[in-house]
Amino acid sequence: MSNVYDVIVVGAGNAALCAAIAARQEGAERVLVLERAPEAYRGGNSMFTGGLMRFPYRGIEDIKAIIPDMSEAEEASIEIGQYTEDDFYTDIMRLSEWQSDPDLVDYIVREAFPTVKWMQQNGVRFNLQFGRQAFKVGERYRFWGGAIAGTVGGGKGLIENLWASAERQGVQFLTEATAKELIMDGERVAGVRVRHKGQWLELRAPHVILACGGFEANAQMRAQYLGPNWDLAKVRGTPYNTGDGILMALKVGAMPYGHWSGAHAVAWDYNAPPWGDPKIGELFQKHSYPLGIVVNRDGQRFLDEGYDFRNYTYARYGAEILKQPGRIAFQIFDQKVIHMLREEYRIPQVTKAEANTLEELAQKLEINVEGFVETVRRFNESIDESVPFNPSIKDGRRTRGITPPKSNWAQKIDTPPFVGFAVTCGVTFTFGGLKVNTKAQVLNEEGEPIPGLYAAGELVGGIFYNNYPGGAGLTTGAVMGRTAGRTAGRLVAGKEI
Q1: What is the rounded distance in angstroms from the CA atom of residue 470 to the CA atom of residue 458?
Q2: What is the pLDDT of residue 145?
């Protein structure tokens, strides 16, 4: 094995693999990807996603460009409308309370569709997300929430396809290799010090791309930056994203940037393991809560389950669960909506109870019986039933006179048997990280690029604050990964960037 390369990519998830492929295509002959994890965990957090990717589209022809094997029957069965660049930009900015870096967001939005198309041309397969992003209304499926396509095979399929594409194009891989320190030549990056199976390696390259995730798997850093009890949250994805890339860059003068006390955190099965399970993937998540109510162990509701489409609330509702007694909550449904729940509610590993009465359900789930029954009674009595229920739009079927309200999709919990699912907080990724420009170059504390250093994926700060639109994470990683690889590869080949 050589110790000299043109480009070294630290990490092996979606952003990293896009970076490696782009670097090769732009002229870098010797590209090495460092994967810290063993084979079963390869692919970082990307492997634990559902594969949903958000991008702007003007209509069905754009979608068919991404999914060329869409059947005529599928095309005839759907209503997709359009999702413009302005829609995408506004969704990121409004959910961040207009804190996001406008230049970065604008760049990501403009590059999203071309990047997804490029991924499709490089072997990534996409399909319509019928079961997750659409409801059947009448004879047609109506997609909602701006994101309609995802990768075949979810995150696992995404990684398998990108990995295979990178190998076909001559990218080299080194697994169980933990990058610990950047090698510097004055102000310029010159390589990486790596621990590999008990040995230390000095791998040299004039261009290093950091794409190894945030600090969500580092309990100490979570408590330090996110706050009390975040060290007790479960980790939705890989146990190997411990902030090493961020710390390495900060050590050589990179500028910290973004929402360091913020994270993407979801409702996660209460009895899930501390880390993501590659065999289960993302199916410990529980995202159909807009169809029911959510209570804590005192039987009290504490959030607006219908505030917006699930795409725009799920990434921040995990944090609300973490604040509840015992860091536990319960999603409650009746038989009117059971058939509409997402597939993750039907896995064998689910923590659930079912009963013919509310009292019995509360006892089985160890919820305060009196508090729970009273909450359901008041909820049922508060619903404006003059508005028809329609899960494919924000239907305005809301409650009146209770706090918190349910702003859409409010239906009585009155059709037994009743079903409850126990959930806790599952942290997906952290929002704080490094400052980069639109060429994916890491900037120093004076705002100038650090020569030879690039970043992509979850360790880039300044994109998400407070919240996040579903499917934007993989898209952002792919855009900035491709950009980092393109910038580095062009510099290797002596081209302009």
Answers
A1: 14
A2: 87
Sequence-distant (6+) residues with CB within 8 A of 185 are none
What's residue 417's pLDDT? 98
Angle subtended at Cα 407 by Cα 403 and Cα 409, rounded to the nearest 5 degrees: 120
Angle, helices 369-381 vs 358-365, to 10°: value is 130
pLDDT tens-digit map of 270-287: 999 999 999 999 999 999
pLDDT (0 to 100) of residue 1: 67
Strand, helix or coil for residue 438: coil
CA 245 to CA 419: how far, in whole Å?
A: 43
- CA proximity to 124, closest of 88, 84, 166, 85: 166
- Cα-to-chain-centroid distance, residue 459: 13
Q: Looking at the domain assignment, is residue 253 inside a domain?
A: no
As a dihedral over the C-alpha atoms of residue 342, residue 344, residue 346, residue 347, rounded to 10 degrees, the angle is 170
d(CA 260, CA 105): 18
- Per-residue DSSP letter, 308: S
Pairing outcome for strands 126-128 and 31-35: unpaired
CA distance 438 to 127: 29
CB contact at 8 A, 155 and 403:
no
The gap from C-alpha 95 to its chain's centroid, in whole angstroms, comes to 15
Q: How far is CA 371 from CA 190, 324, 362, 404, 406, in A?
A: 62, 15, 9, 15, 18
Calpha distance 447→65 (Å, rounded): 39
Residue numbers of the chain with a pLDDT score lower than 70 = 1
The pLDDT, as a whole number, for residue 403 is 97
Residue 33 belongs to what domain range? 7-215+431-492
Whether the predicted model's global pTM rises above the 0.85 cut: yes
Residues 480 and 413 both lie in one domain:
no
Nearest-5° Cα angle at 338, 429 to 78: 75
Domain end call among 399, 426, 453: 426
Within 10 angstroms of residue 211's Cβ, the number of other Cβ atoms is 33
- How many residues make up the chain in this entry? 497
Determine the Cα–Cα distance for residues 478 and 482; give it in Å rounded to an integer. 6
φ, ψ (nearest 5 deg) of residue 252 = -100, 15
> What is the pLDDT at residue 138?
85
Q: CA 339, 343, 344: angle at the middle one, nearest 5? A: 125
Domain at 294, CATH number: 3.90.700.10
Q: Which two tokens stand for residue 122?
A: 């490089």
The residue from 401, 426, 451 where one domain ends is 426
Residue type, 291: L
Number of structural domains found in the chain = 2
